[in-house]
């Protein structure tokens, strides 16, 4: 059943329920991408890239769409995880027009909301510094399927050839 998630509930819903439940694939779209650390246990925060690395090791395929290149801290952490560099199970594309924020797991469940994949967006920052965010966990085929279709169109570059932003796109998909 679909449910509303707010502020710090988003962190819990994504990193302790939705993302770890992936058995086949994980698709994530975000406008902004930073070196997000999530609360793995009561005492330990870890970069979400470590979680991606583990999922790839388990055979999960990951697609990531983001709108701009992340900063140097992200790139430094990224380089610590060889699976993210060498595995054909991890693919990412950059689309400056993407402003969509969603997480799709196995084509069965999804998160759709306002939060970027950043500490402020996912509730990993102090309660006095994080963004005010909201979203929905979707669990019905009628809601997840159109989201998957849109994601796939973007990921495959369906809009690239007619895009009027190609002059600012650092890496056109097609």
Structure in words:
By secondary structure, the chain is an alpha+beta fold. The protein has one domain (about 5-170): 2-Layer Sandwich (Endonuclease, Chain A), CATH 3.30.870. The chain is about 30% helix and about 25% strand. The strands form two sheets. The chain has a seven-stranded mixed beta sheet with strand order 1-9-8-7-2-5-6, sandwiched between helices. Strands 3-4 form a two-stranded antiparallel sheet. The model has no long low-confidence stretch (mean pLDDT about 95).
List its salient traits.
single chain, 174 residues, alpha+beta, Endonuclease, Chain A, seven-stranded mixed sheet, 6 helices, globular
Say how many strands there are. Answer: 9
> N- to C-terminal separation?
37 Å
How are the strands of the largest sheet arranged? 1-9-8-7-2-5-6
Number of helices: 6
Quick overview of this protein structure:
With 174 residues, this protein is of the alpha+beta class.
Topology at a glance:
Blueprint: E1 3-6, H1 8-18, E2 25-30, E3 37-39, E4 45-47, H2 48-57, E5 61-66, H3 72-78, H4 82-86, E6 90-94, E7 102-105, E8 109-113, H5 119-122, E9 134-138, H6 141-155
Parallel strand pairs: 2-5, 5-6
Antiparallel strand pairs: 1-9, 2-7, 3-4, 7-8, 8-9
């Amino acid at each position: 059943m679909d449910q509303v998630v707010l502020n710090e509930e988003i962190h819990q819903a994504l990193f302790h329920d939705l993302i770890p439940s992936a058995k086949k694939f994980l698709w994530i779209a975000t406008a902004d991408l930073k070196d997000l650390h999530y609360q793995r246990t009561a005492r330990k925060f870890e970069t979400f890239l470590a979680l991606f690395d583990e999922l790839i090791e388990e055979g999960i395929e990951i697609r990531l769409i983001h709108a701009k290149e992340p900063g140097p801290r992200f790139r430094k952490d990224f380089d610590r995880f060889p699976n993210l560099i060498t595995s054909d199970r991890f693919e990412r594309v950059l689309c400056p027009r993407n402003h969509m924020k969603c997480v799709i797991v196995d084509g069965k469940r999804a998160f759709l909301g306002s939060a970027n994949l950043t500490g402020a967006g996912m509730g990993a920052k102090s309660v006095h510094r994080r963004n005010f965010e909201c979203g929905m966990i979707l669990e019905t085929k009628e809601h997840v399927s159109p989201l998957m279709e849109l994601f796939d169109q973007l990921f495959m570059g369906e809009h690239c050839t007619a895009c009027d932003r190609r002059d600012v796109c650092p890496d056109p998909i097609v």
